[in-house]
Amino acid sequence: MVTTYLEKESTEQTIQTTVQLHMEHILKVHNLEIFYGEKRAVNGISMDIEKNSITALIGPSGCGKSTFLRSVNRMNDLIPGARAQGEIIYEDLNILSKQINVVALRKEIGMVFQKPNPFPKSIYENITHALKFSGLKKKSQLDELVEESLQKAALWDEVKDRLHKSALSLSGGQQQRLCIARTIAMKPTVMLLDEPSSALDPISNAKVEDLIVELKKDYSIIIVTHNMQQASRISDKTAFFLSGDLIEYDATEKIFTNPSVKKTEEYISGRFG
Amino acid sequence: MKSKTADRIATGVFVAIAIIIVSILVGLFSYILINGFKHISWEFLTTPSSNIRAGGGIRDQLFNSFYILLITMIIAVPLGVGGGIYMAEYAKPGKITDTIRSCIEVLASLPSIVIGMFGLLVFVNVTGWGYTILGGALALTVFNLPVIVRVSEDSIRTVPRDLKEASLALGITHWHTIKTVLLPSAFPSILTGIILAAGRVFGEAAALLFTAGLSTPRLDYANWNPFSEQSPLNIFRPAETLAVHIWSVNTQGLIPDVEAVSNGSAAVLVISVLLFNLLARWIGSIITKKMTATK
Prior knowledge:
The structure holds 2 protein chains of 2 kinds.
Chain A: H1 2-21, E1 25-36, E2 39-50, E3 54-58, H2 65-72, E4 82-90, E5 93-94, H3 102-108, E6 109-112, H4 123-133, H5 139-152, H6 156-159, H7 172-185, E7 190-194, H8 202-215, E8 220-224, H9 228-234, E9 237-242, E10 245-251, H10 252-257, H11 262-268
Parallel strand pairs in A: 3-8, 3-9, 6-7, 7-8
Antiparallel strand pairs in A: 1-2, 1-4, 4-5, 9-10
Helix pairs in contact in A: 4-5, 4-7, 5-7, 7-8
Chain B: H1 2-37, H2 42-46, H3 59-90, H4 95-109, H5 112-126, H6 133-157, H7 161-169, H8 174-203, H9 206-209, H10 242-252, H11 258-292
Family (chain B): Belongs to the binding-protein-dependent transport system permease family. CysTW subfamily.
Protein name (chain B): Phosphate transport system permease protein PstA
Keywords (chain B): Cell membrane, Membrane, Transmembrane, Transmembrane helix, Transport
């Protein structure tokens, strides 16, 4: 008994070390196709998302990047007629499978939207809303998590004196950081950001960007952006989408200095899109 | 020049329409209040009505109106809001949903006298209850359900989709999202719908004629046992409401002071609806403030 247990452990260790030699992948997308009714929005893409890094998805509007992003935490389930085929492997499970508990999945794969969408409740309740639902009731614990997540979202100093005021009294940039904070509070492993700073002014945008880079230490981040500078500034890898196809996926530096596909270069230099 | 004239005419027409609406309302209100106010006295509000002698009051009718309103709302609000939630959040677009929606619309446009006849058949005769408060409340529920369903559905649908997605993306279940995000955001408009429905209940006579009846037993307001015959709280007793009372004294009243009683009752009815409106809105705004943390 003991020996078999040991054996098992040692093989597991070897597997882990070999994986760590390469970059660790948190998500493995394989041949993903997404349809809205009859229309195909994503045409069989495959890509591996690295752990603790920032992956930027760029491309013109309607290229399928947001559709892809929303399929990772199954937000497309809300759209009547939307369906996905293929695989997105997360912790050895196919996210797209019918057996997946979507509610549990979304706790691990959080999402921040383009338009800041705080609940019309107090700042404090915005963060505790989901925590309370997942069973956390003790006030001391909740207080701690509220402070911790607001600290991480670089919002604590600005709001600590008015935690019980309405979240709608915050500025757009603060609201977006609050939305990031409430996602952080759930301690996800992956964060999906759908153009998180496109609706913000340049200063708020810079703050949100700094925050995203900071968050990379703890989370794997996928960000959809229309802002080329943003993608080149903050991301480690960049994927270029065009009409539902993944055209090129490589290190950000390579994509922005020496892309291998001509279309990518044309898009980045602003010749279309 | 031509379009400028058209613009001026349009402005003029709409201002005129607004003036017409306001003056109808003001005229109606002042007519009812001026005619009725002089008959309202503490005695008028606290004495039971009389069938033959002058000087009868409206104590029981006033209580019955509020009590039937309460019972109706206890039945209709959960059903109506529940139906609205179903239509807005669970019903899949398709033939069945379309059928349900047309049924609700047809129900909403049924004349109240027809609902009264239906109530007579089902809640009075089939159940064997006779004329009862509960029968009246059920008939009024039939009458008001479509409005509440419709208003609830619309108010839930107008909550920004962002908020729903935000909640679901945090790993919160659909039902909990409805309960803690959608309903609180929709609450002010749902409340408005309920107040409108309540106003209709208050003023409704035709649906109650054959269900709650035209009489009220001798009530003892000290008797709070809801199963006792004399108790005002008994829901299995006949109950004439204020609106029905106005109709009945005008059509079959033998009392010499018909005009005084009906004018006074009309004024009390209008004032009650107004007070109920203000009160409901005030309570609603307190609840909204508490939920949204705005001060």
